[in-house]
C-alpha cells in the first residue's frame, strides 16, 4: 500500500501544509489508520475508501496523530488534488463523503474548493479566558459584537480570536497545558487567532492556528478554521459578503507561507467553500 505526500494551500513562496493521502484498497480498520497517522506525524492523514467511493463521490476519513476528526480542509484539498491527477476530473462537480456530511467539491479557475459543513456559532465566552491560555493582554483582543469571543464551527469547532495588530499576533505564545484544558472543557479543536493586518497587499486576514489538544501545537494552513473565520466575519458584519474569495495568510511565522481562499454563496442558507493550490511532494510505501 502506498501513501502520497502533498502540500496544500501553497503560496507563490511555496509553503503550505503537508498531508498524507492513502488510497485504501485493503479496508483498513480504525486502529490501523490511527497508527499510520501517528507514524506520519503530519497534522492530518486522509484515507480514501476506494470500496465506498464511486463515480464522482469519494468517501474519506481524517486522522490527526491523536484521533479521528470529522473533516479537514487541507487534507481534503490534498485528497482531491491527488484524485484529479489520477482521474483528470476537469470542471465537473464532485462530492466528498465525510463524517461531517456529504459535501460538494468544485473546480473554480483551476482551484479545488471544498464545501464545509453548514456554519454555526456555537457559543461565546469571556475574553479573560483567552488571557488564561495565551500571553495576550486584554487590550490586544478585539471582542465580538457581544463583547466576548466566539466559538464557530464549519465541521470542527474553533475559538475565533481577533487581535489588534500583526505584531501582536507574531509575538503571542500559548500556554500549552492551560490551552489543552480549555479546549477539552469547551469540546473544541483549538484557537484560530487573526489579524486584519497582513503581509501581502491583496490579502484580507493573517492567521495563526493552535490545536495542542489534538496533537498540533501550531498549524501552517487550515481549511475548516478559516471557513469558520469567514463565517464569523460575515456574522459580525450583518451577513455582508464579498463577491470574490477572501484570501488568508497563514504559516508565514513558521517558514511555511500559505494562502487559503474562502468564498461563500447563498443557496437558501449560506454555503462556505475553502480552496487553494497544492504541490505533489512524493510517494511512500506503507508497512502495516
Q: What is the averaged pLDDT score? A: 94
- Strands side by side in the biggest sheet: 1-2-3-4-6-7-8-18
CATH architecture label of the largest domain: Roll
CATH class of the largest domain: Alpha Beta
Q: DSSP helix count?
A: 6
List how many beta strands DSSP finds. Answer: 18
- The sequence of SSEs as H and E is EEHEEEHEEEEHEEEHHEEEHEEE
Strand content: 35-45%
Major sheet description: 8 strands, mixed, barrel
**What structural category do the secondary elements indicate?**
alpha+beta
Output the CATH topology of the largest domain.
Answer: Diaminopimelate Epimerase, Chain A, domain 1
Q: How many structural domains? A: 2
CATH superfamily descriptor of the largest domain:
Diaminopimelate Epimerase, Chain A, domain 1
Helix content: 10-25%
User: How does the overall form come out from the CA principal axes?
Assistant: globular
* N/C terminus separation: 9 Å
pLDDT < 50 stretches: none
What report would you give on this structure?
It is a single chain. This protein is an alpha+beta fold and 288 residues long. It folds into two domains: 2-116 and 275-285, Diaminopimelate Epimerase, Chain A, domain 1 (Roll); 120-271, Diaminopimelate Epimerase, Chain A, domain 1 (Roll). Helix content is 22%, strand content 43%. The chain contains six helices and 18 strands. It has helices at residues 30-40, 73-87, 127-133, 166-171, 176-186, 224-236, and strands spanning 2-10, 17-24, 45-54, 57-63, 68-69, 94-98, 101-108, 111-115, 120-125, 141-142, 149-153, 157-163, 190-195, 205-211, 216-219, 246-250, 258-267, 269-285. Strands 1-2-3-4-6-7-8-18 form an eight-stranded mixed barrel. Strand 14 (205-211) and strand 15 (216-219) form a beta hairpin. The longest helix has 15 residues, at 73-87. It is globular and about 55 Å long. The mean pLDDT is 94.
